């Protein structure tokens, strides 16, 4: 029995995680925040957990945030042309460049000349996957505020939408210093994986 569990451990963990995500999504749907803006701007639907609010609304950019007692959980939505991600076949590098440019443009700290960047000390985890039957790239790593001391984990999905010649980018990040962050990142992942594209 032990040998069988060891042999199938990766598959078992994957199935447990998938079922946890589905269960989280069902809970979100019982008390959803309106995703009307998401539908209007990006032609997709998502299940959002209650207590999330629109922090920033721009032409092709949304920042949705949930305040915590000691920090916050954030979800960003934006899109870029397919060529911007695939231009030189260095997908992960292009995703990070786009991510950092959006951080510089929209996500600033309370001090002047501070903005969100991807931490350069550690290479991000990168994986090709599928979301809603579409090719997607998952990137996980650590974000930080340039010229400041704030930091935390992030998870990013770049989903290829060939019909609309774009990558839809879903970027979740957590700030909760000195507290456990696993469940918060998992919450973001469950919301992002609930995305459904309009026909």
Shape: globular
What is the overall number of helices? 6
Which segments are poorly predicted (pLDDT under 50) over 5 or more consecutive residues?
none
Count the beta strands.
Answer: 10
Q: How does the major sheet shape up?
A: 8 strands, antiparallel
Give the rounded overall mean pLDDT.
Answer: 89
Secondary structure: helix percent: 25-40%
Q: What would your notes on this structure say?
A:
- This protein has 199 residues and is of the alpha+beta class.
- 34% of the residues lie in helices and 36% in strands.
- It is built from six helices and ten strands.
- It has helices at 2-7, 9-30, 36-42, 82-86, 91-106, 182-192; strands at residues 44-45, 53-58, 61-68, 71-81, 116-118, 125-131, 134-145, 151-161, 166-175, 196-197.
- Strands 2, 3, 4, 5, 6, 7, 8 and 9 form an eight-stranded antiparallel β-sheet that branches. Strands 1-10 form a two-stranded antiparallel sheet.
- Helix 2 (9-30) packs across helix 6.
- The longest helix is centred in the N-terminal third of the chain and has 22 residues, at 9-30.
- It is globular and about 60 Å long.
- It starts with a helix and ends with a strand.
- The model has no long low-confidence stretch (mean pLDDT 89).
């Amino acid at each position: 029995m032990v040998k069988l569990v060891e042999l199938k451990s990766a598959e078992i963990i994957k199935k447990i995680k998938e079922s946890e995500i589905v269960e989280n999504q069902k809970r979100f749907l019982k008390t959803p925040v309106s995703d009307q803006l998401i539908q209007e701007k990006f032609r997709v639907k998502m299940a959002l957990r209650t207590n999330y609010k629109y922090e920033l609304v721009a032409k092709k950019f949304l920042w949705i945030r949930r305040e915590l007692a000691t920090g916050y959980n954030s979800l960003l939505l934006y899109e870029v042309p397919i060529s911007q991600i695939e231009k030189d076949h260095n997908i992960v590098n292009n995703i990070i460049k786009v991510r950092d440019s959006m951080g510089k443009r929209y996500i600033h700290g309370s001090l002047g000349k501070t903005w969100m960047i991807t931490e350069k000390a550690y290479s991000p985890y990168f994986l090709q996957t599928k979301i809603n039957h579409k090719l997607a790239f998952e990137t996980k790593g650590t974000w930080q505020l340039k010229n400041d001391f704030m930091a935390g984990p992030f998870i990013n999905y770049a989903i290829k939408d060939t019909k609309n010649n774009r990558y839809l980018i879903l970027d979740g990040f957590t700030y909760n210093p000195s507290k456990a962050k696993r469940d918060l990142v998992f919450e973001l992942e469950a919301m992002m994986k609930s995305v459904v594209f309009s026909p």
